[in-house]
From TrEMBL, chain A:
The keyword Transmembrane applies. It is a multi-pass membrane protein. It comes from Pseudochelatococcus contaminans. The chain crosses the membrane at residues 12-29, 41-59, 71-89, 95-114, 170-187, 218-241, 253-277, 283-305. GO terms for cellular component: plasma membrane. GO terms for molecular function: branched-chain amino acid transmembrane transporter activity. This is Branched-chain amino acid transport system permease protein. It holds the Pfam family BPD_transp_2. Its main location: membrane. InterPro entries: ABC_transp_permease, LivM-like. The keyword Cell membrane applies.
UniProtKB/TrEMBL annotation, chain B:
The keyword Nucleus does not apply. InterPro entries: Leu-bd (IPR028081), Leu_Ile_Val-bd (IPR000709), Peripla_BP_I (IPR028082). It comes from Pseudochelatococcus contaminans. It holds the Pfam family Peripla_BP_6. This is Branched-chain amino acid transport system substrate-binding protein. Residues 1-23 form the signal peptide. Belongs to the leucine-binding protein family.
UniProtKB/TrEMBL annotation, chain C:
Pfam families: BPD_transp_2 (PF02653). Its main location: membrane. It is found in: Cell membrane. The chain crosses the membrane at residues 12-35, 42-61, 67-87, 99-122, 151-168, 197-221, 275-294. GO terms for biological process: D-alanine transmembrane transport; L-alanine transport; L-isoleucine import across plasma membrane. GO terms for molecular function: L-isoleucine transmembrane transporter activity; L-leucine transmembrane transporter activity; L-phenylalanine transmembrane transporter activity; L-valine transmembrane transporter activity. GO terms for cellular component: plasma membrane. This is Branched-chain amino acid transport system permease protein. The keyword Transport applies. The keyword Transmembrane helix applies. Belongs to the binding-protein-dependent transport system permease family. LivHM subfamily.
TrEMBL record, chain D:
InterPro entries: AAA+_ATPase (IPR003593), ABC_AA/LPS_Transport (IPR051120), ABC_transporter-like_ATP-bd (IPR003439), ABC_transporter-like_CS (IPR017871), BCA_ABC_TP_C (IPR032823), P-loop_NTPase (IPR027417). Pfam families: ABC_tran, BCA_ABC_TP_C. GO terms for biological process: D-alanine transmembrane transport; L-alanine transport; L-isoleucine import across plasma membrane; L-valine import across plasma membrane. This is Branched-chain amino acid transport system ATP-binding protein.
């Protein structure tokens, strides 16, 4: 765990405790009589958490307004569905294809529009996801079976074990979320992650310091799509029948809201926001006709209460304290510029 | 130590989530679109089933056991339906009635199948629902290929030589459009001069109507749902397109007249299973009377009535074999023969499809009534 | 050729509605840099207000059919303006200084709220305006019979746009609106009451949206609680195509989008119509990154 | 041989000629000042060198290579670093991370190495942090390395930008009004810092309005007016150049 020595990783350990607690919760739910419904809700949350984490790379970390992320998810799910139900591949073999095709798609469509500013990129990504959805509806290349969608998708099988019950899939989905969170956490704490943030805060300064903006933006897009594609692979056997109706624009909005609500790309915030929004949407159905009205109201209220998001953007912590005062200064003591202001800086 | 804590946690949580259970009651699931675009269908369905259960329980239930209904809202959308189905599955009901909309039904099929629950679809006519080999899926609605066959038959009988086929890209309408086209191509009695879709939920269909005008067909067959039909009829009149529109069974809804206006709706024809009010068996008449007495109106369409058929079939099966999914499925496949339902006699074939000839031709008169045409 | 002109008129008519809704988007965006996704639902509310007024005051038959539209438009516009004003106060003003996207999420929340409130009040079923309120003859243009309602819609949209354009560019308040759009801080220093100006924009924009809603109901007939979502999205696309923040741009974008849809639906395929419209948007943005009439903003380095 | 040379560089914005046929050279290890009235096109010249703009015609040569038309990130890699007139720090990030931005172009860890924490990536990260701390110490800001850059005083923000630029291992550092907004004491310290930079073997090109500072530290001055070069020479030559005096003071009959 060399990685843990470089920097102070409080968030990392929070994550481990969180996922351990989740595992216990699942066992508890499995052994209770109505627990299956709750497991399904948790699994839904898990899917959205993984998706939101992938969108976070694009929107939260790089600051690219992508409001069509559901398209990548849809494409991954469709690739898996076609390979599995038409060609009969086991689900697990479709994973790399779903991920790579989705990443390639994202790369190709992002290439001509990556230079667009904020809101213009936002509307273009909406357009891309709608075009893709319409293509699915219209049975493009005769592969997607139109509005009916693709049915009869098998369950995931790993080492001879079939993930059928909600309980089994819980571990699959949340295991994936845990791995995702961990890898993205490392990524965030690296040259790569910092470069994405530089672009988010100031493109001109980032490029003036040697960051190849177009390249990083495209990689961010492709990486987010790659991951969303993998989540699609997990989702298709989870829901068994996929159709274009599952991937409407509203789902993109929900994802977007999760990332914004999380606050500045914070991973812990993403998990909390997923629980809050997706969980709330599921739980509120008990209010029947009033459920969506309440959901909309809650969205407004939550944003007003926490306009900066649930969590603050957490600054990376570096283990550099021991280096203070070790290196020479180019400014003599008599000048006093640094000395005088140092006090103010340190407070 | 850790094991102990986990156990304690598990027990605590499981207590919190436990449902109260009444062992002697027979529980039946209902999945219906109580919200969303097909909400009026879903609400009717819920009323019908609730009324029938009330009746049944007043008469002593099934073999002395009261029937209890577990309702989940599928929101008229596939995504919500999958969640609703899982909820129902986790309540361990032996059988579920529902739902309206083929795509919505399809999203729930796998989940019920995996849980071993018997499902009886009501307003789901898409062919492939019963082509997947699920042993516990049934439906009281007819299939689209049957409807396609009757549609081609009717077009021919009405003397149309060229027809434009229009659908709305939904699972059901696209399926029926494809089926109709296949029938037309097979028989060669009518020509298809136009085949395209509109986007449902829009307010302006003048573009597609103009396009239809230029295709100049004898008749337009629209396979979509009643709100679009209403609007098409209304705007067709404004644009001066004379070819009549003929519709499929999804246009069988009284709201059609409200949207189109009586003038524009006059002369509109559609094929459909008989309307609730055209059902003339004593069982049905009695039921409709009590429905009217309770809710002040008749059910809006045949599809909610078809859910009543599903309920009747289920009750028969449970009466004979008990509330066990496997036994119910077996009974429905093999032993249920010509039981008197609300919309006619009920039997199922080996695929789970309803046996029998249901479709009729209807025409709207000047007062906005749906009039059954003589065969 | 006849068919082409008819399709063009179809496109311009629906495009006029897009344009009116887009005006509201563009004004709010110009002043707050906020994409007010609830704007489409304000449009829907306008349509429902119109219907309610029509039915509850039993206008039909008692008032001349030539006056009815104006009564409905004005009353619905006032009603929606009040809601727009409240919307800004409740859902956006507390987020004025927060992350721009927080307000966008809040707007989505408001949008969901409005659509579902309408469902609860009016039922989720579709409603229709009576079919026979206004019966006007068709008017021949270039030898093609054009429905006069198309001309009325187009004319109303152009008129409202022109009025708005004049108001923004030739009145004191209009100048203040432009000033706030350019620099809120400086405008404040010049003694402009920024809050008041923003409230005003949230009155004008929704009023136009409400008017568009009534036109929609009157001339196309059917309304339903969720139509604002797709209409709003289309109108937003229209505003972007034209160059968001630019008033003639919104008009141009709306009409262009309507025509592109009509041509795509009429000559390619109804099922690909929306995909083609979005495709056109993307192509336009690739070549004009800030829309057709949008200003190119260079980064000051 | 000169480190950097501009030959007949022209840049237009619409109808406006911002830089009109400018040529000058910067010798290795020297400090060169670019001066002129506001709006003379000084910053535009900088942007042409750093690749933010591409010249309409003319060439920019750095270490014998033509660099105009290249993207800024490539030019940084070749050894030209800059600061900005209107400070462009990553306000929400820490001082250390700002300086690490400068290290970016000298590091190699990509997506995979970063995601899977490969050992060499960890070593690279560690040495980058050390080097960044070294630059922070060089401008005297190392003690507050973990603070948010946006909270620094104006003068210190300028110093942080210099540290960030130095972290890119530049051969040439371009400073755009480094003393802007500084008080006398701070300016004195800056003068010292620029001398120290020069001592490290790094060439300095700067825009500055503070004539004391410019005359003190520059070996050569280039004067621009209305986008064109009007003079070039040592501080003494420039001081006495009538054209320069006119440009700065205006002709006597011009109110």
């Amino acid at each position: 765990m060399e990685a843990l020595k470089q920097t102070r990783h409080i968030g990392f350990w929070t994550g481990i405790v969180f996922f351990a607690l989740m595992a216990v919760l699942a066992i508890a739910l499995e052994s209770s009589s109505g627990g299956n419904t709750w497991l399904r809700t948790l699994n839904n949350i898990g899917i959205f958490t993984a998706l939101a984490l992938s969108l976070n790379i694009i929107l939260g970390q790089t600051g690219l307004f992508n409001m069509g992320h559901i398209a990548f998810f849809a494409l991954g799910a469709y690739v898996t569905a076609v390979l599995n139900s038409v060609l009969g591949w086991p689900i697990i073999y479709t994973l790399p294809f779903a991920a790579c095709i989705t990443a390639l798609f994202a790369f190709v469509v992002a290439l001509p529009v990556i230079h667009l500013r904020g809101d213009y990129l936002l509307v273009v990504t909406i357009g891309i996801s709608e075009i893709l959805r319409i293509a699915f509806v219209n049975d493009i290349f005769g592969l997607t079976q139109g509005p009916n969608g693709i049915t009869g998708i098998q369950r995931i099988e790993l080492f001879g074990y079939r993930f059928m019950s909600q309980f089994a899939q819980f571990y699959l989905i949340w295991g994936f979320v845990a791995i995702t969170a961990c890898l993205f956490y490392f990524l965030e704490h690296s040259r790569f992650g910092r470069a994405l943030n530089y672009i988010k805060y100031d493109e001109v300064a980032a490029s003036g310091n040697g960051v190849n903006i177009v390249r990083y933006k495209l990689i961010a897009f492709a990486l987010g799509a790659f991951w969303a594609g993998m989540v699609g692979t997990i989702y298709a056997p989870f829901i068994r029948t996929i159709s274009p109706g599952l991937f409407e624009f509203k789902e993109s909005v929900l994802l977007f809201a999760i990332v914004i609500l999380a606050g500045g790309g914070n991973i812990v915030g993403i998990v909390l926001a997923s629980f809050l929004l997706v969980g709330m949407r599921d739980v509120l159905t008990m209010f029947g006709d009033w459920s969506m009205l309440l959901f909309g109201l809650m969205m407004v209220v939550i944003m007003i209460i926490r306009p900066q998001g649930i969590m603050k953007p957490r600054r990376r912590q570096y283990n550099a304290g021991h280096l203070v005062g070790k290196f020479p200064s180019g400014i003599g003591k008599k000048a006093g510029l640094s000395a005088g202001n140092q006090a103010e800086v340190v407070e | 130590m850790i094991k102990k804590t986990m156990l304690a946690l598990a027990t605590g949580v499981s207590l919190a989530f436990a449902f109260p259970a009444f062992a002697q009651d027979v529980r039946i699931g209902l999945m219906a679109g109580l919200t969303g675009p097909y909400a009026s269908e879903g609400q009717d369905t819920k009323r019908i089933i609730e009324l029938m259960i009330e009746d049944l329980n007043a008469k002593g239930g099934i073999n002395g056991n009261k029937v209890q209904l577990v309702i989940e809202d599928d929101g008229s959308s596939p995504g919500t339906a999958a969640t609703a189905a899982t909820r129902l599955a986790s309540t361990k009901v032996p059988a579920v009635i529902g739902t309206y909309g083929s795509a919505v039904t399809e999203a729930s099929q796998d989940i019920f199948d995996e849980a071993g629950i018997v499902q009886i679809g009501t307003g789901s006519t898409s062919i492939r629902l019963t082509e997947k080999g699920y042993e516990r899926f049934f439906r009281t609605a007819p299939r689209d290929d049957e409807q396609g066959r009757v549609a081609e038959e009717s077009l021919n009988k009405l003397g149309f030589k060229t027809v434009a086929i229009l659908h709305d890209s939904t699972a059901y309408a696209k399926g029926l459009a494809d089926e109709l086209k296949a029938q037309i191509d097979k028989n060669g009695r009518v020509n298809t001069v136009f085949f395209d879709a509109l986007v449902p939920g829009e307010s302006d269909y003048s573009v597609v109507l103009t396009k239809l005008k230029s295709a100049n067909p004898d008749a337009i067959f629209f396979t979509g749902y009643y709100p679009e039909v209403g609007l098409l009829l209304r705007q067709k009149k404004e644009i001066g397109l004379d070819a009549p529109i003929i519709g499929g069974d999804a246009s069988n809804h009284v709201d059609l007249i409200k949207i189109a206006g009586k003038d524009a709706a006059k002369g509109y024809r559609f094929i459909s299973p008989p309307l609730p009010t055209d059902l003339d068996t004593p069982v049905t008449k009695e039921f409709l009377a009590s429905y009217k007495a309770k809710y002040g109106t008749y059910p809006g369409s045949i599809w909610s009535v078809a859910s009543g058929d599903a309920f009747i079939a289920l009750v028969e099966a449970i009466k004979a074999k008990g509330a066990d999914s496997e036994a119910i499925a077996d009974y429905l496949h093999n032993d249920l023969k010509d039981v008197q339902g609300l919309s006619g006699k009920i039997s199922f074939n080996e695929k789970g499809d309803r046996v029998g000839d249901l479709y009729r031709l209807y025409e709207v008169d000047g007062d906005g009534n749906f009039v059954l045409q003589p065969e | 050729m006849d068919i082409f002109i008819t399709q063009l008129s179809n496109g311009l008519a629906i495009g006029s509605i897009y344009a009116l809704v887009a005006l509201g988007y563009t004004m709010v965006y110009g002043i707050l840099r906020l994409i007010n996704f609830a704007h489409g639902d304000l449009f829907t509310i306008g349509a429902y207000f119109g219907l309610t007024i029509l039915v509850s005051f039993a206008l039909q038959g008692n008032v001349s059919p030539l006056i009815i539209p104006w009564i409905l438009i004005i009353m619905a516009a006032i009603g929606v303006a009040i809601i727009g004003f409240l919307l800004e106060r409740v859902a956006y003003r507390p987020l004025r200084n927060a992350n721009r996207l927080a307000a966008v999420v809040s707007a989505f929340g408001a949008s969901i709220f409005f659509a579902n409130a309408l469902k609860l009040i009016y039922s989720p079923n579709r409603q229709s305006y009576p079919a026979d309120i206004i019966n006007l003859p068709n008017i021949p243009i270039f030898g093609v019979d054009i429905q006069s309602k198309r001309l009325i819609m187009f004319g109303t949209a152009v008129l409202l746009m022109a009025l708005l354009y004049w108001y923004i560019n030739h009145t004191r308040t209009g100048t203040a609106i432009r000033a706030v759009a350019i620099d809120q801080g400086a405008a404040k220093l010049m003694g402009i009451n920024v809050n008041k100006i923003i409230s005003l924009v949230f009155i004008i924009g929704p009023a136009l949206g409400g008017a568009a809603g009534v036109l929609m109901g009157l001339f196309y007939g059917q309304i339903h609680p969720e139509m604002g979502f797709s209409f709003g999205l289309k109108a937003f696309v229209a505003a972007i195509i034209g160059g968001i923040g630019n008033i003639p741009g919104a008009m141009l974008g709306g009409l262009l989008l309507g025509v592109v849809e009509a041509i795509a639906g009429g000559y390619v395929s109804g099922s690909w119509k929306d995909a083609i419209a979005f495709g056109a948007l993307i192509v336009i943005l690739i070549f004009r990154p800030t829309g057709i009439l949008g200003e190119r903003v260079a980064d000051k380095i | 041989m000169s480190l950097l040379s501009l030959q007949n560089v022209i840049k237009k914005f619409g109808g406006l000629t911002a830089v009109n046929d400018v040529s000058f050279t910067v010798d290795e290890q020297s400090v060169v000042g670019l001066i002129g009235p506001n709006g003379a096109g000084k910053t535009t010249v900088f942007n042409l060198i750093t690749g933010n703009y591409a010249p309409l015609s003319g060439t920019v040569t750095f270490r014998g290579q033509v660099i105009n038309g290249q993207k800024p990130y490539k030019i940084v890699q070749q050894g030209i670093a800059r600061t900005f007139q209107n400070i462009r720090l990553f306000q929400q990030m820490s001082l250390l991370e700002n300086v690490l931005a400068g290290r970016h172009c000298r590091m190699h860890a990509g997506l995979f190495a970063s995601m899977f924490c490969l050992p060499w990536q960890q070593r690279e990260e560690k040495s980058a942090v050390e080097r960044a701390m070294q630059e922070l110490a060089f401008v005297g800001l190392d003690a507050g390395y973990d603070n948010e850059a946006g909270n620094l005083s104006y003068g210190n923000q300028r110093l942080l930008e210099i540290a960030r630029a130095l972290a890119t291992d530049p051969k040439l550092i371009i400073l755009d009004e480094p003393a802007g907004g500084m008080n006398d004491q701070e300016t004195a310290a800056l003068t010292e810092l620029i001398a120290a930079i020069q001592k490290r073997g790094i060439t300095v090109l700067l825009i500055e309005h503070d004539m004391n500072l410019v005359m003190n530290i520059c070996q050569k001055l280039v004067v621009l007016e209305y986008g064109a070069k009007i003079a070039e020479g040592t501080p003494e030559e420039i001081k006495s150049n009538p054209k320069v005096i006119e440009a700065y003071l205006g002709t006597s009959d011009d109110e």
